[in-house]
Request: fold
Amino acid sequence: MAIFSIIERSQFGEGCILSPERYDPRRAVLSGLKASVPLGSLVSLHKKTISPKAKDLPPGEFLVLDASNAREGMVVVRRDSVSQAEIGSVKKTLFPGCVIISRLRPYLRQVAFADNGIPGLQESTSLACSTEFFVLAPLDGQSIAFLVPFLLSETVQKVLAASQEGGHHPRFDAQTLLGLSVPQKLLERREQASLACEGAISEYRQVRTILAELILAAESQIVQVN
Reply:
């Protein structure tokens, strides 16, 4: 079924944008929430970047996350850290406690909480990620892990999908993300939800560790047989 919107000239976006995606009514699903706050009042966009030739960076290596390393709320990575010269191109920096979300192809659900247990993350290692990610950092020092299930919820995913613009590799913009309405009821249980989310990720790390040990044990037995 086709979707129609009637827009007055005064409602055109900044720069008189005529793209039909900008006025898709599905983008406004969350705007009707009365008891809510905008996401932008809870987080800031961390925009610091690094490049292979930057000269003002601290010593140490970087663990670089691509879009495929964010899956269903968790950072999944199996690679070694690299030197600054090996990061390849400009990357965004991030730190444990941030939430990352890819602005490209939201249907892939590339959202993740950056926890302290990311494999390969050490005291001398810094995190970096693709510029396709929006990096959300807490404004008040409290955990924002509770935002992961919010961003992965069906309603929010539909809003982000409807907000994509551009002909080649369409993306949603920062204004759309920061303008999402976060229900007050979710904020009331923010601490519990964040603890639950972080606990689930910690348990996932434990499972991965056990499986890795079992794989190594199986490999050693194969070598012994040969």
